[in-house]
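Dock zinc ion; give full complex structure.
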Amino acid sequence: MNVILRSKLFPLFWTGATAVTIRDMIYVRRDYWSWLPVDSQRALITHELVHVRQEGQEGAVRFFFKYIFQRSFRFKMELEAYTAEAQFWINQGVPKQYAVLIMARTLSSSLYRVSSYGGALLHLWENTK
Ligand SMILES: [Zn+2]
């Protein structure tokens, strides 16, 4: 796994994204990465490592097509990644209610357009310890 900092992710990926994983390479916007506290960098890596595994299982090309064109697939992939990220924060001592709430808000944001806030919240709550 390598973290590669770039000034822009576009045209690599849509402009709203701050990080994108291709095979075992995690591309992160340089300005975003340097702004993040170390714990948040680790949380981001935790999230992206889930995508590394998912892409490995699915095959990178197939993963990207499905991710971009199939809303239900994107939701499933992101839900798993955000659940891991929420668990990371909980393990760091962040109260579960707070970690789950933040992840659900991000997951239901315009970046992914995959989930209702309530639905994301419920899933994250049920799948973190
Ligand atoms: Zn993700």
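Observed: DSSP finds six helices and three strands in the chain.
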